[in-house]
Amino acid sequence: MKSQSYQEKIIQTAKMIKELKPASVLTGAGISVESGVPPFRGQDGIWEKFDPVEYAHINVFRRNPHKVWNILLREIKNTLDKACPNTAHKALAEMESSGFIKTIITQNIDGLHQAAGSKDVIEFHGNFATLHCVKCKMPYMMKEISIKKIPPLCACGGILRPDCVFFGEMIPPESLYRSRQIASKTRLMIVIGTSATVQPAASIPLIAKKNGAKIIDINPQRTIITETVSDIFINGMAGTVMADLLKAIAR
Length: 251
Ligand code: NAD
Ligand code: ZN
Description:
With 251 residues, the chain is an alpha/beta fold.
């Protein structure tokens, strides 16, 4: 079969979205790259000097919270304090309000889908906007705490940690349950900016595929699911592709 051009793929995907709506969406770090938030891996990943998996592991945090706050969490806070939703986040919010998509399952902790106006968002890996004390569980807001002194402490003296899922921790059971339910029922899943390597999030498109859904894969680089699991691979940056898709749907 002749391979399709970029424009042909956009037109075919827009047609599928109209026919099979509402689509479900799985996003990864790549969707926030155009908001200035670097991914862990892949091109432009900032963590070249060290292994993020080491610093993002719960055992490392428990053993040495100072090190994890000093290197990983400080960097994430400084980046996310400045980040705003980009064209791709905004396009998804618009597609939700016009009924073309329903739920976004995101692996991201940056809150940018909600900031763009998306309502139905499953934060598979929790979020970075809130924290709690590991000793007394008192909740805090990330934007209200100071990191001049590391690690930040609760009024009780306990160490604060963000409400995101560290490597080695469980996915919140209700997020996992609902994501699997959606994957088993959806007729169309749009996967944006994920290398599909972090489990169990990576299994979500596989569940959808097994249950007969069509899978669209949007990424500037090929991934493990490209054309093995996905029916259409749209090679491009999330912002550009989502803007083009939105225009094609409106036609
Ligand atoms: P990942 O495994 O999701 O990989 C990033 C993917 O994004 C790669 O496949 C890359 O080719 C693609 N990409 C790069 N630029 C893109 C663009 N402009 N448009 C579309 N796709 C693009 O992410 P990771 O970096 O390995 O992170 C692992 C885990 O950490 C995941 O859970 C991830 O969500 C989380 N994380 C979250 C954030 C965030 O909240 N923004 C940032 C870094 C890591
Ligand atoms: Zn406390």
